[in-house]
């Protein structure tokens, strides 16, 4: 009797616990595996975070009443993560990271402008996460022992966020998917405990009045705080999925994973603000630590662990994607070394803000919020390009060559980004006096100081205007037929 043939092996397939070898390289069809449902975990874990309760308090401060505020928050969260889900289709179709796929809309070199903005946003929010985790550690340490110095606990929390995020980011996507699954389950259990302990302080008494300006502000705040900050890395986590996987499932699992917890937590924060205005006011300066003010002592340490781990869940995704973006900008390094560079920047920047210049934190956050305007414009262009021009997929060779079908600079994409950003920045305001003077230049004085000025109208305008400009002008640069021919002739993997 003949011996059975040896099992087939794939020399390119790695163990899920090995360091990911791929950087910007195209993921070929034989390397793809998994089902769209795996996308639930990486998007759920970073969005089960106690700070989201504080975000709900911010929306409540717009003065609409709890029901209107909760609806505005839910609309902003769900719609923004729907954009993330749609952008994830680029990874499934193209097999390349998000900002590499962006070369189709902006050109090989023109895309570097968007990549720089994306890199600043990702590294900046990584830094914010490390800082907030450290400040939460300070608050809990002082609550447990007011006479002791909180510095050792702060250093431990800061180092934990940096080290764990860096290690997991170096290992890469497959380890991230596994880690995020267990973090999601852990966060879900801790969230239930937190909500039960805090529920007696909520109130459904409504004191505000509905206004469209405040409602739009709530939607815009939720959208910019959540999905719009993740669109630029959506395809990074879907590019290993089979091309035959359901597109609806890719969009659906991404949207559900990212939006389910924030809708609940923001809604809880809104009614908690109504029941405890003093805590809501304290959350303006200590957005994580203030939420521990009324917790029983026995839950303070689990709460701190929850806070630190939740920022790790977000930071490791930012760190992984920022490493890919750094390579897209033209830096020639292995992916794991790019992650180390990003980690070093976060360590220096976060350490400076926490331990040397705490007053710099507010303007730093304001600056990152401003970056949200051009990133919203980028989102409009990227999704319009995906919808109108990539139905046949991406030309593999053109994504990696400046002389390919997508060219060096796509004037339609870059022009739409610049024009829409200029208009959008003129329709947003900032409470920071240094940054605020550069914004809102398209508002009248009355509009700037009213509810319209605080509505972040420019975010929506930038997204919609960029999509419209690109849709109308890209045909001048190259006909859709020419690009279809280039895809048909090229290697799609």
Automatic annotation (TrEMBL):
Phylogenetic classification of the source organism: Bacteria, Bacillati, Actinomycetota, Actinomycetes, Mycobacteriales
Pfam family, one: Transp_cyt_pur
Descriptive protein name: Thiamine permease
Transmembrane parts of this sequence: 38-60, 66-92, 113-133, 153-173, 185-204, 210-231, 251-275, 295-317, 338-358, 364-388, 409-431, 451-472
Family the entry assigns: Belongs to the purine-cytosine permease (2.A.39) family.
Domain of life: Bacteria
Gene3D superfamilies referenced in this protein's UniProt entry, alphabetically: Hydantoin permease
InterPro entries the record matches: Pur-cyt_permease, Pur-cyt_permease_Fcy2/21/22
Major location (coarse): membrane
Topology term for the membrane: Multi-pass membrane protein
Key words, A-Z: Membrane, Transmembrane, Transmembrane helix, Transport
Keyword Ribosomal protein appears in the UniProt entry: no
Keyword Transport included in the entry's annotation: yes
Molecular function in Gene Ontology: transmembrane transporter activity
Organism annotation: Nocardia panacis
Gene Ontology, cellular component aspect: plasma membrane
Subcellular location: Membrane
